[in-house]
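User: My collaborator sent over this chain with a note saying "see what the structure looks like." That's all I know about it. Can you take a look?
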Amino acid sequence: AYLSDELGKLLISKPLFSTGGSAAIVLNKNSQIASEGYELNVSEKRILISASTPAGAFYGIQSLKSLIPPLSWKSKQQSVNIRAVEVKDEPRFGYRSFMLDVARNFQPKAEIFKVLDLMSLYKLNVFHFHFSEDEGWRVEIPSLPELTQVGSVRGHTSDNKSKLQPAFASGGVADQLPGSGHLSRKDFIEMLRYATARHIQVIPEIESPGHARAAIKAMENRYEKLMKAGKTAEASRYRLTDPQDKSKYRSVQGWEDNVMDVALPSVYNFIEKVTDELILMYKEAGAPLKTIHYGGDEVPAKVWEKSPAYLKLKSTNPGIKSTDDLWYYYFGKLNAMAKKRGLFVSGWEEAGMRKTILDGKPHYIANPDFADDHFQLHVWNNVIGWGAEDLAYKLANGGYKVVLSPVSNQYFDLAYNSSYYEPGYKWGGMVDVDKPFYFIPYDFLKNVKEDGQGRPIKDLDQSKMIRLTDYGKSNIVGLQGLLWSENNVSKERLEYMMLPKLLGLAERAWAEEPEWALGEYSILNDLYYKNSWSQFANRVGKRELPRLTYYNGGFSYRIPEPGLKIMDGKVHANIQLPGLEIRYTKDGSDLVAGSMIYTGPLTEKGKFRFAAFDASGRRGRVVEIESK
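Assistant: Without extra context I'll predict from the sequence alone. Here is the result:
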């Protein structure tokens, strides 16, 4: 059915296909092929896709689509020519993930579906759905309607009781994108079905106990409403904080009221309620649910210190000696709750860390409490120069299942480069399509080229850093690219930040380990890398970007600006991705799709303006240079 629909988008009339026989396209079951592998054979007589599972057949279909001439998606075709080819293929990693944050700034259902289609085209199979945050809660939970009635609405407010204050350029008018918006229960189930049909597992994230301001304010609204109705017991059932807690803290993002009080029994009522409602939605959708991501990152110091619930718990529970112990208490209870429901816990790296003392100073180690319980950690903090570059390997060596989600190479919300004109953050460095491409999963420190401020780095000192053991390697589940949405105020901005970076991630998650990543660094490795990058850049610029110009309505990917230089009295220009047209004017006039095409160094004098254009005539950023 999927193959039929995809060909229907492309061709005026669909070709014959079957699951056996002599039709034009045949899907064949072959139990000898690996579970996500496939074989694709294109001959003069037919196209044959063989696989042992529906997922394998699905990926064979994606490779078939990639063989179709890229501009075929511009309009319906009478026919398309596909080169004869024989492919035997399977992924390197079984976990190939993309995380999308829709909490900071919301993206509507149609755009989320478009992202899922893009993921499926490039064989990514996990969608980490970050729907709850300080600034928004984006999935309807019918038994707790305040979560979206309050938590999904941003606008002018003096008390955050009926809505949340504006944030991240969302503006002060309520019920408008990108600050306001959510998926209804029906929408969410539809999204799950859409993803499942594309062999994408959706992992929902309930951010806790920090980054929970939207949920906290929503539950305060519920509390006040039920108290006015005289329902005292029910009012407190899902409350997430205690107004008597006088602890003073401040989160990295500047919030002083965004952490759940994990000593309160009502917090666990809330987590269980949301978990159970999500489970029901997955069952109704027929979607697999193996884990829920419960957050766990960036809980500030000083939190809970003056909480009455914490002080009471401390007096009755000998295992609670300080607020640090509340962390293990919280995740222990989550772990027990998840196990009872047939799930395992996913979380950010902090969920698997324990604070101890080394030389009189706080020191973090892999927490042995949960290492054997299939805790799955998404490890993000490897900022080069911060001192935790090897954290993912420490946790994997310590027994935790690790999804490599590093800032340095796979945070797509970071700016492409240091230019003033590039949107995105720069706190963890810059990330362009080459960063996820040259990431070496089992030894990424070997290939570090920049520090956390984007400054070139020749040789990173690894003398005090942990290397990945063979046991640790067995705990590396896969790779994840992440797109936080503080700056994604439109779908165009989202697509700009995501593409073409996503292609580097897809390559590294699926393809076998490249030659340039093997062994010790040498000049030969460098030559292998340059050749590999050249091939990849040509595929991206000449095939994938033209395809994405029109595929599924087209994507607003980033068109890189040309590089300019005056040498020997001539103006030289180049471009990062071959296949894009460089056009110019030499009198300072505006650039359009009909402007002169750059074919070689220019000897004329004048004020030159350059820009790259894609297959549709869409223009990238204009850059200028003057030759006198």
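A starting point for your reply to your collaborator: The CA atoms of residues 11 and 530 lie 38 Å apart.
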